Amino acid sequence: MSAPLIEVTEIGKTYGSVLALRDVSTIVRAGEVTCVLGDNGAGKSTLIKILAGVHQHDTGEFLVEGAPVRFGSPREALDRGIATVYQDLAVVPLMSVWRNFFLGSEPTTGWGPFRMLDRRRGRETTRSALAEMGIDLRDVEQPVGTLSGGERQCVAIARAVHFGAKVLILDEPTAALGVKQAGVVLRYVAQARDRGLGVVLITHNPHHAYPVGDRFLLLKRGRSLGCFDKADISIEELTRQMAGGAELAALEHELRAAAGDGAA
After folding, report:
1. Residue limits of the ABC transporter domain (predicted)?
2. Residue 202 domain-assigned (yes or no)
3. In this prediction, what percent of the chain has a pLDDT beyond 70?
């Protein structure tokens, strides 16, 4: 079997005296979705920033296709095929869909000082790339700010696929979406996986993660509660772990005891 696209082993990160991440291990394979789950403050953002080249790890090992790396910038991660779509999407709302699709990599025509923006090729390429992902927009000239949250997420996913990403990191893509729009985004996550990408899906919702996930890394307060293949954990157990099963059981016992004392 070929080396995983990404493998982290006992990764750790501290900010001064604050321990943000400790001894976290997981893998990301081509054609699979690795879901990273946890509540706020669990360490999800720190992990993806290390993978995306925003921060460097302090301890542990970070391998990309079997080779150790320590990225100095997001550009270095992108050059190795790791694309990250953050929750705020980093789009320009008043700019057209196709201009946002090519933002920073605009197609041009002509040469030297006579180079000009190739609008026709930009529109056609954007329309074709979106259609390949099954995304049917009314007009690629419309401002991206007029799209729904789910549509904007899908455009960002299609952009990463078009520009040759091997690994797609999605930061809480369904967090602010309704049920229907979340379903649309998860459908495109599955499409990216089926096209051979390795996907890292960051979420706090096990019901969004489980249908598309192949592997589940659970984080709590910067530490790993375990990394499970789908065959080894049910949606019920994943939800219980996420909800803090032991803490909830203790609380339930405490409330019952208090109610019993009150009745007495």
Report:
1. 6-246
2. yes
3. 93
CATH of the domain at 200: 3.40.50.300
Residues in Cβ contact with 262 at an 8 Å cutoff, skipping those fewer than 6 apart: none
More confident residue, 254 or 239: 239
List Cα–Cα distances, 255 to 51, 122, 157, 199, 242, in angstroms. 42, 61, 46, 41, 21
Taking only the tens place, the pLDDT of each residue in 185-234 is: 898 899 899 989 999 999 988 999 999 999 999 998 899 999 999 999 99
Res 83: pLDDT: 92
What 3-state DSSP class applies to 80? coil
More confident residue, 120 or 250: 120
Query: Which amino acid is located at 204 in the chain?
Result: H
Q: Are residues 194 and 214 in contact, defined by beta-carbon separation less than 8 angstroms?
A: no
149: in domain: no
3-state DSSP call for residue 138? coil
DSSP string computed for 187-224 = HHHHHHHHTT-EEEEEES-HHHHHHH-SEEEEEETTEE
Q: Which two tokens stand for residue 23?
A: 């001894």
pLDDT > 90? residue 69: yes
Q: Residue 82: give the domain boundaries.
A: 6-93+164-233
Inside any domain, residue 42: yes
Q: What's the rounded mean pLDDT across residues 100-126?
A: 87
**191's tokens:** 């499409």
How many structural domains is the chain composed of? 1
